[in-house]
């Protein structure tokens, strides 16, 4: 996994080739983040494409490259919310395999799939916080900045998400 420091190093090189490399690194992360918000693969790809254009246009104005990660997630979040607002027929449905089917074919990989399935079943805000905290490595303060939510609310969402997962696993 390429870490934040390496991305900041590439940004400090301040050349087009390095910036293109940064875009290729962050694209899958932003796509995963957007899919958690929009729930539709093609719409999330559109939102990420718009985000990438905004990031390309605006990154030169960024004064502190250490805030790059927070900024790109905020840009992507805003583009996703814009996409949702534009599409008044938006549905908050997920097309997922049922947990019962996955448990029928249990092995090590299935255990991971079960966890991923359980995470996808969490309420939208809890799922985003879990993804940003555990998978993307952001701390509470950074998540609060990305989601424009108070730190206390992020802590509560994280606690509630963990409790929901514990209850689902215990069933």
From TrEMBL:
<dbReference type="Pfam" id="PF04542">
    <property type="entry name" value="Sigma70_r2"/>
</dbReference>
<dbReference type="InterPro" id="IPR007630">
    <property type="entry name" value="RNA_pol_sigma70_r4"/>
</dbReference>
<dbReference type="Pfam" id="PF04545">
    <property type="entry name" value="Sigma70_r4"/>
</dbReference>
<dbReference type="GO" id="GO:0003677">
    <property type="term" value="F:DNA binding"/>
</dbReference>
<dbReference type="InterPro" id="IPR014284">
    <property type="entry name" value="RNA_pol_sigma-70_dom"/>
</dbReference>
<comment type="similarity">
    <text>Belongs to the sigma-70 factor family. ECF subfamily.</text>
</comment>
<dbReference type="InterPro" id="IPR036388">
    <property type="entry name" value="WH-like_DNA-bd_sf"/>
</dbReference>
<dbReference type="GO" id="GO:0016987">
    <property type="term" value="F:sigma factor activity"/>
</dbReference>
<dbReference type="InterPro" id="IPR007627">
    <property type="entry name" value="RNA_pol_sigma70_r2"/>
</dbReference>
<keyword id="KW-0805">Transcription regulation</keyword>
<feature type="domain" description="RNA polymerase sigma-70 region 4">
    <location>
        <begin position="119"/>
        <end position="167"/>
    </location>
</feature>
<keyword id="KW-0238">DNA-binding</keyword>
<protein>
    <recommendedName>
        <fullName>RNA polymerase ECF-type sigma factor</fullName>
    </recommendedName>
</protein>
<dbReference type="InterPro" id="IPR013325">
    <property type="entry name" value="RNA_pol_sigma_r2"/>
</dbReference>
<keyword id="KW-0804">Transcription</keyword>
<dbReference type="GO" id="GO:0006352">
    <property type="term" value="P:DNA-templated transcription initiation"/>
</dbReference>
<feature type="domain" description="RNA polymerase sigma-70 region 2">
    <location>
        <begin position="27"/>
        <end position="88"/>
    </location>
</feature>
<keyword id="KW-0731">Sigma factor</keyword>
<dbReference type="InterPro" id="IPR039425">
    <property type="entry name" value="RNA_pol_sigma-70-like"/>
</dbReference>
<dbReference type="InterPro" id="IPR013324">
    <property type="entry name" value="RNA_pol_sigma_r3/r4-like"/>
</dbReference>
């Amino acid at each position: 996994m390429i870490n934040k420091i390496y991305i900041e190093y590439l940004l400090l090189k301040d050349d087009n080739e390095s910036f293109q490399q940064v875009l290729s690194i962050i694209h899958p992360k932003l796509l995963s983040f957007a899919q958690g918000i929009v729930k539709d693969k093609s719409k999330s790809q559109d939102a990420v494409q718009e985000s990438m254009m905004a990031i390309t246009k605006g990154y030169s104005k960024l004064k502190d490259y250490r805030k790059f990660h927070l900024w790109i997630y905020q840009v992507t979040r805003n583009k996703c919310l814009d996409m949702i607002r534009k599409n008044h027929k938006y549905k908050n449905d997920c097309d997922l395999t049922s947990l019962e089917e996955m448990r029928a074919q249990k092995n090590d990989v299935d255990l991971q799939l079960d966890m991923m399935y359980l995470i996808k079943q969490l309420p939208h805000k809890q799922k985003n916080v879990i993804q940003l905290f555990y998978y993307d490595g952001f701390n509470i303060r950074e998540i609060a900045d990305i989601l424009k939510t108070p730190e206390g609310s992020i802590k509560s969402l994280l606690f509630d998400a963990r409790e929901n997962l514990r209850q689902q696993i215990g069933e």
